[in-house]
Specification:
about 200 residues, Rossmann fold, about 45% helix
């Protein structure tokens, strides 16, 4: 499968690192599925911008909801084709002292990063296996490795994301797995087709 035949789904891609990754994948010839849960207008603008170069669409969905993820992936397949690359970038973070955080904030943070990655990979796994090899990239902040006193729950979610990356590698056959820890702007200057 060439890049022009492959669809790349990038979660959390309406802004920031996700947008930069989606843009780079488009430059390398991938058809791109833009995803976000709350920045619908921005997501549509990014999809329109990228869509001037390659087939691209906006697929709004809260990845923390596995049923919504299944529906989103069905829409991606019917619009752009089977998914050959998954970039799990979506995340949610509450900054502040842990004692001032709340259970709903914990739930949102953990569900977006961890349940979101589980749901996206499980629902795209057959496509990824057929792509031979499909590619899955987990974008994870360094706080999952070293912690962050102002974002304890976010750090825990990032740590779980790192563990998923390590766990999936030897267990899911015919899918190439990559993790990116401590992403910085300079990391985005390198070609990413070889992942």
């Amino acid at each position: 499968m060439t890049t022009g035949e492959s669809v790349a789904l990038v979660t959390g891609s309406s802004k920031g690192i996700g947008r930069a990754i989606a843009t780079r994948l488009a430059e390398e010839g991938y058809r791109v599925a833009i995803n976000s849960s709350s920045s619908t207008g921005q997501g549509r603008l990014v999809a329109a911008e990228i869509g001037r170069r390659v087939p691209c669409g906006y697929f709004g969905c809260d990845v923390a909801d596995p049923t919504a993820v299944r529906t989103m992936l069905e829409r991606v397949r019917s619009t752009l084709g089977p998914v050959g690359v998954v970039v799990n970038n979506a995340g949610w973070m509450h900054m502040g002292r842990f004692e001032h955080s709340s259970a709903p904030e914990w739930d949102q943070t953990l569900r977006t990063k961890v349940v979101g990655a589980l749901a996206v990979v499980q629902n795209s796994l057959e496509d990824l296996k057929e792509a031979r090899p499909g590619r899955k990239v987990n974008v994870t902040g360094d706080s999952g490795r070293v912690g962050n006193s102002r974002a304890a729950v976010h750090s825990a979610a990032q740590g779980a994301h790192i563990a998923l990356t390590k766990s999936w590698g030897p267990r899911v056959r015919r899918v190439r797995h990559s993790g990116q820890c401590g992403v910085s702007r300079s990391n985005l200057d390198r070609p990413i087709t070889g992942i």
